[in-house]
Design a protein that fits this description.
By secondary structure, this protein is α+β, with helices and mostly antiparallel strands. It has one domain. It contains four helices and seven strands. It has a four-stranded antiparallel β-sheet. A three-stranded antiparallel β-sheet has the order 4-5-6, with no helix packed on it. A hairpin with a 5-residue loop joins strand 5 and strand 6. The protein starts with a helix and ends with a strand.
Length: 201
């Protein structure tokens, strides 16, 4: 009788063991699926960030070109430097290229403003999915994300400067003093010296 009772106990333990092990395996695969989805979301956000920044940097280059091309006109160069001149670039080509470089597609690029400064909102969808897992949705769903990048002036102009020279200060950099009559002899500021580009969200 004692031997039969032991065999009965073992027979009851096996189904419980199978259920516990099966549940643990399911949880492990579920966690793996969630991790796959998180990786896809991170990749999507990186692509969106890169696209928005690329658009803003492209337009920043237009602002810098406008500034450099207006150094012979006191009123014009100040307006370009302080971003008071309208820009016509959209940055869409640059944004689309960066999205593609990150294995994503640019769904849209919308101009906007942040604190009164021009900005660009990029929306992307990854070309890849999260991959196969026990959750069928991960093999079909493409991650989406958006990001906003803003352009801000770095420089300020001191009123009452000698009009024979172009003088301004950008951030903590040494002041610039440019002779517009001898531009070929000077190292002129680059776009990154004049305007900052950063993510707004």
């Amino acid at each position: 009788m004692r031997g039969v009772r032991l065999r009965d106990d073992r027979g009851q333990t096996i189904p419980i063991y199978v259920v516990v092990v099966g549940s643990l395996l399911f949880l492990a695969f579920a966690y793996f699926a969630f991790a796959q989805a998180a990786v896809a979301r991170n990749g999507a956000q990186s692509a969106a960030d890169a696209s928005a920044l690329a658009a803003a940097q492209d337009v920043r280059d237009e602002l810098a070109d406008g500034f450099l091309n207006s150094l012979d006109n006191q009123d014009d160069w100040v307006k370009w430097l302080l971003m008071e001149q309208p820009v016509h670039g959209t940055g869409e080509a640059a944004a689309s290229q960066l999205a593609g470089d990150n294995d994503a597609t640019l769904d849209g690029l919308a101009p906007t403003t942040v604190a009164g400064y021009p900005a660009f909102r990029a929306s992307i969808t990854t070309n890849y999915t999260a991959g196969k897992s026990i959750l069928p949705v991960t093999s079909k769903s493409h991650a989406k994300a958006h990001a906003v990048a803003v352009i801000e002036p770095r420089c300020s102009v001191t009123p009452g400067n000698d009009t024979d020279f172009i003088e301004f200060t950008c951030g903590d950099d040494p002041p610039w003093k440019i002779d517009p009559k001898h531009l070929d002899d000077l190292a002129l500021p680059e776009a990154k010296d004049l305007f900052s580009v950063h993510l707004a969200e």
